[in-house]
Amino acid sequence: MLARRLLIFSRQFVNFTPVIRRQFADSASQTKTVKFISGNKEFIGKGKVGDTLLDVVVNNDLDLDGFGACEGTLACCTCHVILNEKHFEREDRTNPAGEEELDLLDLAPEVSDRSRLGCQIKIMEDDPEVIEVRVPSVTKDQRSA
Amino acid sequence: MIIRRIVICSRPVSACLQNARTFSNHKIAPRIAVVGSGPAGMFTCTSLLRKSPAHIDVFEYSPVPYGLVRYGVAPDHQEVKNCINGFDKLFVNHSDRIKLFCNVKVGQDVAFDELVSNYDAIVLAYGSYRQRKLQTPGDKSTNVVSGSDFVAWYNGVPNSKAPLLDNSEAVIIGNGNVALDCARIISLGVLGKLNETDVPLERLKLLENAAINRIKIVGRRGPLDVSFTIKELREQFRVEGWQSYIEAAAREELEPEKWPAGIERKHQRLFELLRKHVLGSGPTDDKQCEFLFRRVSKEIKADENGRVKELIVENTRTKQREAFPCGLLIYCLGYESMVLDGVPKNDKVTCILRKRVNMSCFEGTIAMSDYWRVSMPSACSTRVYATGWCAHGPQGVIVQTQQQSAAVAETISTDLEQIQLQEQKPGVADLLKSRSVRYISWEKWKQIDEAEKERGKLQGKVREKFTAFDQFVSDKSPVN
Ligand SMILES: Cc1cc2nc3c(=O)[nH]c(=O)nc-3n(C[C@H](O)[C@H](O)[C@H](O)COP(=O)(O)OP(=O)(O)OC[C@H]3O[C@@H](n4cnc5c(N)ncnc54)[C@H](O)[C@@H]3O)c2cc1C
Ligand code: FES
């Protein structure tokens, strides 16, 4: 947590260019690619085994503004992601959602059976080189209230 | 609070007619005004700063920024307030493109029309702070307070009136999260468990010395109709030293066979939690918080000094009248939408017309042409958008507001890309100065913020909020 805070802090002083790499397989085996799919857009970042999906969004300065509003303290669910079936099962076996996470997911818009909070999902060694997750967003066909 | 200097009457959106544009070829960065610095305003800014080259001026009525994150979210939910770190960072990373003007009320210090003349786009994100009234005979009795007033008080809003906490019984009307927040803050406060939070010291003392040991949370409808979120409900059940329970009379209604068929997981989990806490045997703790349902408020009775002493309800299960003695009555019936002077509003006629074409419409809300855009007169070249509680109603938590705001920012940046601006809009900073409006800038907010944290540290608290800001906006201090 502290490390993440420091990272966020140090980011302020680094001139960051968003890392959007199309080259998926990385030579360093510990580094994996995470593809966040939101609506018809894709945001791609790199992370190390042990990083959370929230770390990947923050460290790569991905254009998913507002993702991780509570900074990974299990207080907001803005980091809601939907995993694919295999990924969900893998996580559910080794790192199932606890009560707190489930309570927050109950608030998440467009929640699904494969929903998790991105700040609780770490990149694991078992994960494929390219991890794909979906980030729900407000659908454009909503009509004015 | 701080005395407002000028009152500006709002004209119709005539300002629109003065700024019809001709298009030219060179790009000028658009200037955007954001009204309100709560999550809606700030998440919109976050995305706009990334997606467009715009210059943004944020106007905030309160002397300090961030809306309900500071003045709504409960003091024992400090992590929820972490989003403030991200908001503050915007002003550091984009200091040349975003400016904050706190202590400026749109509609009073500067008119909506003046924003229309001086900006290319306006984002309305002013929330909805008006609480729905109780409207029960006797509601003017002393110590009958709205949930929003009670929340404002414990959160340190300047000039909020202290409730009287010297009676052992309190009743809270309402079955939403604000009712839960009020109950939990009383429960924790009397046990001295909020001492490290940002509740101002003098208000903390009042809570700690409170005599309250019975809280009744009273709902009009049944236990399956509650608007509580499970996290907040669980927190009440978990307050140690308090026995919090659902009245035994609700047991039958909470049986799984009474649940509607095919309900979502979130409802199942919530109903299960309620069911688990139906009172079984007798009371165990001397401090109790009871949830009662199907009670319609009929009358508030006052003592000879005019202070509330009893709430009379009708129990719609038994059709009997019941009296709940109380020395404090808090009603949490939700917030009302309101429309700023000069902003197009849905009236009866617009609603009839819209409903004819199958569009939803609520009287007394901002007139929108779609999910993001305010319907402005066609001659108006200034684009006006609305997001958050002022646009979509006072409901939901920060995540909904965040998603709406990301979407509105996307729409704004696409809209603005398609027009070429002819001239740089001036903004209203000079206008505010000429009117001697003593606004508080982001730099000054940081001084306040640092000072509050420093004062907090001395007391072992995360922050000791100022509850008066005159020293920061006095005539002697520089304007910003
Ligand atoms: C008591 C309470 C507790 C809550 N707790 C939580 C929680 O724990 N977790 C969670 O996720 N959500 C919580 N919420 C919900 C959350 O606060 C809202 O989702 C969110 O604040 C709405 O954002 P907003 O920007 O639309 O409104 P606001 O936060 O109200 O911001 C609007 C801002 O506009 C300003 N303004 C108003 N009029 C003018 C004017 N004329 N000129 C200039 N400025 C103006 C206001 O001062 C305010 O700062 C809570 C809400 C309440 C009421
Ligand atoms: S970042 Fe807030 S819950 Fe994950």
UniProtKB/TrEMBL annotation, chain A:
GO terms for biological process, alphabetical: P450-containing electron transport chain
SUPFAM superfamilies for this protein: 2Fe-2S ferredoxin-like
UniProt GO molecular function: 2 iron, 2 sulfur cluster binding; electron transfer activity; metal ion binding
GO cellular component: mitochondrion
Cross-referenced InterPro entries: 2Fe-2S_ferredoxin-like_sf, Adrenodoxin-like, Beta-grasp_dom_sf
Annotated keywords: 2Fe-2S, Iron, Iron-sulfur, Metal-binding
Family annotation (Gene3D superfamilies): 3.10.20.30
Record carries keyword Iron: yes
PANTHER family listed in its UniProt record: ADRENODOXIN-LIKE PROTEIN 2, MITOCHONDRIAL (PTHR23426:SF76), FERREDOXIN/ADRENODOXIN (PTHR23426)
Official protein name in the record: Uncharacterized protein
UniProt organism field: Diploscapter pachys
From TrEMBL, chain B:
Keywords of the record: FAD, Flavoprotein, Mitochondrion, NADP, Oxidoreductase
Source superkingdom: Eukaryota
CC cofactor: FAD
Subcellular location: Mitochondrion
Known pathway: Steroid metabolism; cholesterol metabolism
EC number: 1.18.1.6
UniProt-annotated binding residues for FAD: A40, E60, L68, V106, W389, G396, V397, I398
Any Pfam family hit: Pyr_redox_2
Binding-site positions, NADP(+): N175, G176, N177, V178, R220, R221, E232, G396
InterPro entries recorded: FAD/NAD-bd_sf, FAD/NAD-binding_dom, Ferredox_Rdtase, Ferredox_Rdtase_adrenod
Catalysed conversion reaction: 2 reduced [adrenodoxin] + NADP(+) + H(+) = 2 oxidized [adrenodoxin] + NADPH
Domain annotation FAD/NAD(P)-binding: ranges: 31-186
Single GO MF annotation: oxidoreductase activity
A GO CC term assigned to this protein in UniProt: mitochondrion
Any GO BP annotation: cholesterol metabolic process
Family as reported in the entry's similarity comment: Belongs to the ferredoxin--NADP reductase type 1 family.
Protein's name in the database: NADPH:adrenodoxin oxidoreductase, mitochondrial
Organism listed in the record: Diploscapter pachys
